[in-house]
Amino acid sequence: MKQLTILCLICIIPLNLFAQNDRTIWVDELTKMAKPVLTALANDALKETMPIEQSSFEYGDRSPFAGLEAFGRLMAGIAPWLELGASQSTEGKLRKEYIKLAHKAISNAVNPNAKDYLNFNQGSQPLVDAAFLAQAFLRAPNQLWEPLPNETKKMVVNAFKKARTINNVPYNNWLLFAATVEAFFVKFEEEADFLRIEYALNKHMEWYVGDGLYADGKYYHWDYYNSFVIHPMLIDIVKVLQETNHPLKHLKGKILERAQRYAEILERQISPEGTYPVVGRSSIYRFGTFQVLSQLALMEELPKELSEGQVRSALTKVLLRLHQPEGTFNKQGWLQIGIAGHQPKMAEPYICTGSLYLTALGFLSLGLPENHSFWTSKPEPWTMVKVWSGDVSVKRDAYKN
């Protein structure tokens, strides 16, 4: 027990001296990352000021997609925090500022007369990031959708209808992008194509390979796309279906149970030092690797084996390992390719600066209010801290169907 206590002090205390400081760390990191994107787009200057870094031109120039990539992915991650709304607290006043920026940014992103009107239908990539932007509206309807002027809402709908025309969709997790755009139409009372939702859900039920894992199409891929895309979009789509009489709404329990098992696996990936296995495609999505764990905390649906204190402590440790190395941001505050700093050779040919903002998806737990037990509970050692300290109370991992 003495050994465990010492290790916990090494692993946890230096990074978050008191549990309440964890939230400040998260808010600081999220807003630092978001400010250049939202400020530029709100000022109709994103295309003018955003740097475009890409490691290869094998897939061609990615700059036509970078703006929507950065905006859609960032918004999907920051949305739950914004959904808390403004308040008189220091953080609440900060949210008010970012909500205003988000509204202006949305308006310019979908306005054909704006310089920053984003690409929603040229090439295949816009379907992906239209889906992430749709997720943002699903996750923050009261702050991101309802306050918009009717004219802006019409332009958002028109933008998503343009993304609908992208038909050459790969036979894999991309089915969920098409389905998530349709979930937006279901949620906000627009005519929806339920066939796209049904096809995506049914295929992913077929592609389930067990133990909380889905194959990405015909074959399983050893990477983190179960967290980047698959589990979170399945959860958000089936949540929308709960508001309808659609027969596939019954999948909610099964989808949640599988996500909970995957969350257990993710938590076990986190070493005592806050590192984790870097394997597979899109590793440079950084904190987005842990979206499922953060999302289940937000939903108050963490597996019973995981306490809020251990999840928060583990994720905070990871966040600092990922976002604070020199080179993570350039001098103007834009993300750069890499995991531990600037590592451009780690990017796939389809990656550019905009892609990197998928890291925002790890911040979903900030949608829990400041006084929630996730933020106020005492820090606790996570599974690998217990294992490698020799803690005799740690339990074995167990396969689940």
From TrEMBL:
Pfam families referenced in this protein's UniProt entry, alphabetically: DUF2264
Signal peptide start and end residues: 1-19
Alphabetized UniProt keyword annotations: Signal
InterPro entries per record: DUF2264_N (IPR049349), UCP014753 (IPR016624)
Occurrences of domain DUF2264 (ranges): 22-382
Keyword Chloroplast tagged: no
Domain of life per record: Bacteria
Keyword Disulfide bond applies: no
Name of the protein described by the UniProt record: DUF2264 domain-containing protein
